[in-house]
Specification:
Chain lengths: ~325, ~500
């Protein structure tokens, strides 16, 4: 991989983000109503609404609004939320780190659990262990987050057994145990589907690799089974798994919307839902950009990791 | 002459009037200290007391700010920052005596200057304050001396002390009002029992005790935390497990389960909140009163109370005045009679029935629930209703005050006058039915100027009768306010308007 490739990819990401921002802006313009209508609700006169539209700059044509937004964004200013009266950078920043903590905990859990499960399943292919793992993997992929979340709430946060909080958030600098206890259920919900998905992927790749000629050759060389699995098979099976994980980041971002709402986790997903409900355009724009950038960058990182794992992958 | 000069009336004294409230251990001595945790499903999106409009925001502002007057549980004004008031005989000039030695959260003394600045800001259209609609008769507010304020009105208005209890008419420091109005969105300087410590609209609002609150010894609590739970399942699980002490709002469907849980007390307070089915009268077919009456007869109100409100409400009679107000006209609600409705509809020129779309917003969900139920109920009467549920922003932009047949949702007002002038007079702030009835307008104006209680009742009786016979819109039921608290919480009080909470009286009996 060379620097030119990296620059090309980053430039492409910028173009995508520009298109995304324009599309989001256009869609919000097609819909009737605006933030002023939503803020004032039913207790507003036309005069009040007009004045608020004026103060929010909603009286200008959409392209003027967009270009102004773009100009501000390029100078690093995302403006002020129309509904929450706080700087968008502050709102997004805070929410982003909270979501990132949740996503990181989920990815870590998935990596620690899903890859060994997939490997184990492949090694015991057709056996009882494989059957049990496959069974749970199928169930895991079939359950939507809101079902998993509700089940976990009932099992672990019911009044009788309530050893975990049913939702909420404690910042880590206030209390580490508080932060962690609130993290458990949303992480478990997000991890379940991903674990199932990735374990199945690893199992399938691993099974192919274990049946390949070079693994047979390695075994014939007299290498121990551990060495065969870890050094030869796993490394080759991992590249496709990383590709799947990077695609799952996209899923994770979508899943976070649901999970954050259910468990009252004050992250980017919930901010986004709130902004959409209230037609808070600056926040919708910024949150969409952050989500799109996260997705694009995770794909780029995955490509780099895959290249490192599999030297046959060439970048042109 | 003095209209009302009430002796100090605590919120607890007012409680006795509301029979559905649980009996409190009145003999127990309040214990100071502790942190009260309250859950709520909607954000505190801003701290600007002049603009707030959400349930959780009302609670927060009731703790942070005081008004000149405050609405008691009995719907009468009680002294707050004003200790007494009087009016001239024609009810066009009011004088308020202010409470001495009150300070704002920043330590500055409260004076008449703050009242003048606040009222003037509310009356300025740029402040976007909902309180403007109920205080628009004020033409001048002036400080007579640091502890006296005088209001001049352009028309007689006996209810001014009640109107000043409006949730958006609380007194803000004049200092703060000198800054751009957006400063109020994130900064609160009031004279209330609590002051802001942490404000994170996505998570929690933490308020701490104001040691200089004017009621000596109150508040009892050290702090109040308001935690946001957008998901109802998570909210009730947190409350039932004891992580939260009180739930601000309980949904009808959950009320029975939650209030019967061990260690929990539910409160159900009759309120004047209603859903109204708007029938625009400047267009066919609703320009014909027979069609409106037929529609009113085609709605089975007690069934709506049972299925939509799960029993937590009462049938209404297309009259916006509910039992919580002082001057309710006692009358039965229209009988569900689809056969008679069908006949009336035929008389109005629709012998083969009437096909019509009914538009509902998706927020709150109760609107489309009513729409769907009414569709079925009105079928035998010959109404073929097509229920269209649309997103709330589309509803606000395209349907509200423009549509022909749609469902509105309104909170309870503090006075009869406010309720009438909200939707039904010709010049109503939100006149969405286009009901221009000169006689009704005159009655409302007459009632507004009447100081004599019995005379006023007569006038309001007539106004209500007119509304019920002319059916400007269908008001099928009044919805109760539902809340719940754990038994360790003492004096947690729900108010019919859901805008006053008296948290300074709340104390905790833990362990």
């Amino acid at each position: 991989m060379d620097a030119a490739y990296l620059i090309r990819r980053l430039a492409a990401i910028l173009v995508v983000l520009l298109i995304v921002s324009l599309t989001v802006f256009a869609i919000t313009q097609i819909l009737p109503g605006n933030a002023a209508v939503m803020i004032l609700g039913e207790y507003a006169t036309d005069e009040q609404r007009r004045l608020l539209e004026l103060s929010l700059g909603l009286d200008h044509p959409w392209y003027v609004q967009y270009l102004r937004w773009l100009g501000r964004t390029l100078s690093g200013d995302w403006g002020v939320s129309m509904r929450l009266s706080q700087p968008v950078t502050h709102l997004i920043g805070e929410a982003f780190w909270r979501s990132a903590a949740l996503a990181a905990a989920s990815l870590l859990t998935v990596t620690v659990i899903a890859i060994p499960l997939g490997v184990l399943s492949a090694l015991r292919r057709g056996g009882f262990t494989d059957l049990v793992i496959s069974f749970f993997a199928y169930i895991g992929t079939a359950l939507p987050e809101f079902v998993t979340a509700t089940l976990l709430l009932v099992i672990f946060a019911s009044p009788e057994r309530g050893f975990l909080p049913a939702g909420g958030f404690t910042p880590i600098n206030e209390s580490v145990t508080g932060f962690l206890s609130h993290l458990v259920l949303p992480t478990a919900t997000l991890s379940l589907i991903l674990t199932a998905h990735i374990a199945r992927q690893v199992r399938s790749e691993m099974s192919d690799v274990l049946a390949s000629d070079y693994v047979r050759a390695a075994r014939l060389k007299g290498l121990s089974e551990t060495a065969v699995v870890l050094r030869h098979a796993l490394r080759n099976a991992m590249a496709p798994a990383v590709a799947v994980i990077s695609l799952d980041v996209g899923y994770l971002l979508g899943g976070i919307l649901v999970v954050e709402e259910v468990f009252a986790w004050p992250g980017l997903g919930r901010l986004m839902i709130y902004a959409l409900q209230n037609r808070d355009l600056p926040v919708i724009q910024a949150a969409t950009l952050v989500l799109a950038a996260t997705y694009a960058i995770s794909n780029l990182v995955a490509d780099i990791v895959i290249a490192a794992l599999d030297p046959r992958v060439r970048y042109a | 002459m003095t209209i009302s000069n009430i002796s100090r009336r605590g919120a607890i004294a007012g409680l006795a009037a509301a029979s559905t409230l649980p009996a409190f251990a009145q003999t127990a001595t309040p214990k100071p200290g502790g942190v009260l945790k309250i859950s709520h499903p909607t954000r505190v999106a801003q701290l600007n007391v002049l603009q707030i409009s959400g349930p959780a925001e009302y609670l927060a502002m009731d703790m942070l700010y005081s008004g000149l007057t405050r609405l008691g549980i009995d719907m009468r004004p009680m002294p707050d920052l004003a200790t007494e008031w009087s009016a001239t005989l024609d009810a066009k000039e009011f004088t308020f005596k202010l409470r001495p030695n009150v300070t704002f959260h920043d330590g500055k003394p409260f004076t008449s200057e703050d009242v003048v600045a606040t009222i003037r800001t509310i009356l300025d259209v740029k402040s976007n304050s909902p309180a403007r609609a109920v205080l628009s008769m004020i033409v001048d507010v002036a400080a007579v001396d640091p502890m006296t304020v005088k209001f001049a009105l352009n028309s007689p208005y006996a209810d001014l002390p009640v109107a000043l209890t409006h949730a958006n008419a609380r007194i803000v420091s004049a200092e703060l009002l000198k800054q751009p109005l957006t400063t109020l969105d994130t900064k609160a300087i009031g004279t209330g029992p609590f002051k802001v410590e942490t404000y994170d609209s996505a998570r929690m609002l933490r308020l701490v005790k104001n040691p200089n609150y004017y009621q000596a010894g109150k508040p009892y609590l050290d702090a109040v935390e308001m935690h946001l739970f957008p998901d109802l399942a998570a909210e009730s699980a947190n409350f039932l497990s004891g992580a939260m002490d009180a739930m601000l709002e309980v949904q009808q469907a959950d009320f029975k389960r939650i209030s019967s849980a061990p260690g929990v007390t539910g409160q159900r307070v009759p309120s004047g909140r209603f859903v109204n089915i708007v029938m625009r009268q400047d267009q066919k077919p609703f320009d014909d009163v027979r069609v409106r009456r037929a529609m009113a007869m085609a709605v089975d109100r007690s069934t709506l109370v049972d299925i939509v409100l799960e029993g937590y409400g009462r049938p209404a009679a297309d009259n916006c005045i509910s039992p919580g107000y002082r001057y309710l006209l006692d009358s039965p609600s229209p009988k569900y009679d689809p056969a008679a409705a069908k006949k009336l509809l035929a008389e109005a020129g629709y012998p083969n029935g009437l096909k019509i779309p009914l538009v509902c917003s998706n927020r709150p969900a109760i609107r489309s629930q009513v729409g769907i139920a009414v569709k079925e109920m009105a079928k035998p009467a010959g109404f073929d209703i097509d229920v269209q549920t649309i997103p709330h922003d589309t509803y606000l932009a395209n349907v509200w005050r423009k549509g022909q047949f749609y469902i509105g949702y309104w909170g309870m007002q503090s006075t009869e006058d406010a309720a009438f002038t909200l939707l039904f007079t010709s010049d109503a702030a939100f006149a969405d039915t286009a009901w221009n009835n000169k006689k009704f307008d005159d009655l409302v104006a007459k009632g507004r100027a009447q100081i004599d209680d019995a005379e006023r009742r007569k006038t309001y009786d007539e106004a209500q009768r007119l509304m019920m016979t002319d059916v400007p819109s269908i008001i099928p039921f009044f919805q109760d306010v539902l809340t719940a608290s754990r038994n360790v919480v003492k004096n947690w009080t729900a108010h019919p308007l859901a805008k006053n909470f008296y948290v300074e009286n709340v104390w905790l009996q833990r362990g």
